[in-house]
Amino acid sequence: MLRFLTAGESHGPCLTAVIEGLPAGLPIDLAVVNGDLARRQQGYGRGGRMRIEKDEAEVLSGLRFGRTLGSPLTLAVRNRDWANWQDRMSPTGPAAGEAVTAPRPGHADLAGVQKYGHDDIRNILERASARETAARVAVGAVARQLLSAIGVTVAAHVVAVGGVTAARRPYSAPEIGQLAAASPLFCADKTAETAMIEAVDAAKTRGDTLGGVFEVVASGLPPGVGSHVQWDRRLDAALAAALVSIPAIKGVEIGEGFANAALPGSQAHDEIFFEPGRGYYRRTNRAGGVEGGISTGEDLVVRAVMKPIPTLMAPLASVDIATREATRANTERSDVCAVPAAAVVGEAAVAIVIAGAVLEKFGGDHLGDLFAAVEHYRRRLDGGPR
After folding, report:
1. What's the number of domains the chain is made of?
2. Which of 148, 283, 338, 357 sits a CA distance of 20 to 30 A from 116?
3. Which residues lie across from 156 on neighbouring strands?
4. Is 199 contained in some domain?
5. What is the pLDDT of residue 331?
6. Could you tell me if residue 36 is inside a domain?
7. What tens digit of pLDDT does each residue of 84-98 get?
8. Rounded CA gap, 193 and 86, in Å?
9. Are 207 and 316 in contact (CB under 8 A)?
10. Would you state the pLDDT for residue 181?
11. 116 is in which domain, residue-wise?
């Protein structure tokens, strides 16, 4: 079983991630991990924090001479801004700095202090911050390298920002990777991208923020990953949970998703065909590569909705938790639009889920065992069922 935990605060010394369940012998290229961390910091509409941090992963355990040992792999991403926050975020010693008492609507601020009994919102916002997703992106970069070893590619792109929607096309993951890399908004549709940038600029002028939608595609995933037998083994359930766990994500759809509500069944499903040498296939992919909680062998297609970031330069109305008097919400450094960054995080989340489901199905304490199991399974598929 593949599992991971992250730890760390936004302005603490570092973020860490511990990954357990990776097979031994997997080559890990830190340049790939650091490349994904850099992509998370890019994207039109990002804020001032991205000019401070230059995220790079440091390996603390589980890797020797570039290959996994089978023991927990620990990654750390240092926070450069820690030097300016050592007094206010010190783990020991007397309290320092002014308490944050004006909760931001749309953030974990108020619900968090109510739940944990704090009188300083910083005790909540530091961990609730989307800064935590840097650790998840590092985990996802490792998962993508595992998937790449068995021929699976995962990539994400932005398909909507502030109400501007890109043309819907069935891109493969390798195509998305190339097109998104050439776009400041990680958008494959150049016409839509221009309008999106204009919308971001207008929101910045107003002191406002914008949300949007990103799409993640996984190509090369064989049929049979995931299971129908229990709710928590369904691949689509795990994907939805992983994506909604990303800060500011408020909705997920797989394949045609919500559009199916307006369609008759004859237009909502993917007819099945067979050709010798090709096997079973579908001419459409409305299901997004998942049926009954199990991968179909078609491209896996998932989209997620990101709400506008709740930290506004023109703050919304709030109530001071110390005085109970009306005030304006606290203002931290913020992005105008973080949908491109969320797409990178979503790509990582999908890669982690798929990698876990692949290891659950095929197992293997060593990478060679995994290769052998995958190859045996593919040979079995070539011969049946009839």
Report:
1. 1
2. 338
3. 216
4. yes
5. 75
6. no
7. 999 999 999 899 999
8. 40
9. no
10. 94
11. 98-382
CB 304 within 8 A of CB 245: no
Give the residue numbers of the binding site for NADP(+). 40, 46
Inter-residue contact 24 to 68 (CB < 8 Å) = yes
Six token digits for residue 202:
């207008």
Flag whether 89 is in a domain.
no
Taking the C-alpha atoms of residue 10 and residue 52, their distance in angstroms, rounded to an integer, is: 13
3 state SS of 62: coil
Tokens of 30: 């830190």
Enumerate the known binding-site residues for FMN.
127-129, 292, 307-311, 333
Query: Taking every pair of C-alpha atoms in the chain, what is the biggest distance, in angstroms?
Result: 74
| Average pLDDT taken over every residue of the chain | 94
Q: Binding site: residue ranges? A: 40, 46, 127-129, 292, 307-311, 333
> Please, are residues 170 and 176 in contact by the beta-carbon 8 Å criterion?
no
> For the whole model, what pTM was predicted?
0.95
The per-residue pLDDT for 313 is: 79
- In this structure, what CATH number is given to the domain that contains residue 142? 3.60.150.10
Question: Which residue type sits at 197?
Answer: I
What is the per-residue pLDDT across 243-283, written as a single tens digit (0 to 9) for each?
999 999 999 999 999 999 999 999 999 999 999 888 899 99
Tokens of 114: 């109510």
Residue found by looking up tokens 């819907």 in the block: 168
- CB neighbour list of residue 176: distance below 8 Å, 6 or more residues apart: 155, 156, 157, 188, 215, 217
